[in-house]
């Protein structure tokens, strides 16, 4: 069984779902462990936090603790290190372009309000998205979720801020920002991060502060609707990314999950949204347990749409 830290949801071209839970990468349909960090002899600092399916049937799996991204093939217990950098804060989440040749990464330090975003183009070196992309007076703080538009020309990232309330840190604000990219996938000349949606306003600020909404993973569908996991709020926010400002579509309440960490769309028609996270508890004494909720949505996901365009095996 997956432990309470389940996150990093992903999909393959056949529509099957996968997730990670610190030490393992797992097929959610069968429960089969496809990669185990302990069996592979990786250090105890390893902390799997992200996964993404590739057109070749393999997966990228992010190791936030060991600052690496592995490429994993089914049936192979030993991973290949695809990316690594001691300058990375994590990485915590990953997004990939339609052709699989452009990869973007996010990371953060929760207690220090820090976040970073990196990218690699055409298997080239890792490059950090510089602070020059920040507008005067605007700075992305804890970056968690990261996603790429269907045309590959906009990069989305969450930003959240903690404040000390009654001696402990609690999230007090959260937004999603977008950055324009050029045709090669680099930040466009002179491009600056701009806020496209205030998640606390979209949810209702009073309710957001009450539950301590903390944005986690997010995924686009094929029509430009974003699904954002709202950690702590037992909900997913669907919002329209088309246009200069995001527009709330629906707040989807989750039946079994209190703190969603990530999500993805897949299934036979690509329209099943799977959300992973920490289960709701009957009391504060219960240990964290992993839950998976499924929701039918109007459109197939961007990821599975892109994978099926490039795969003959679906």
Automatic annotation (TrEMBL):
InterPro entries noted in UniProt: 6-blade_b-propeller_TolB-like, SGL, SMP-30/CGR1_Lactonase
Domain of life: Eukaryota
Gene3D superfamilies documented for this protein: TolB, C-terminal domain (2.120.10.30)
Signal peptide boundaries: none
Stretches assigned to the SMP-30/Gluconolactonase/LRE-like region domain: 49-276
SUPFAM superfamilies: Calcium-dependent phosphotriesterase
This protein's name: SMP-30/Gluconolactonase/LRE-like region domain-containing protein
Organism in which the protein naturally occurs: Lunasporangiospora selenospora
Upper taxonomic lineage: Eukaryota, Fungi, Fungi incertae sedis, Mucoromycota, Mortierellomycotina
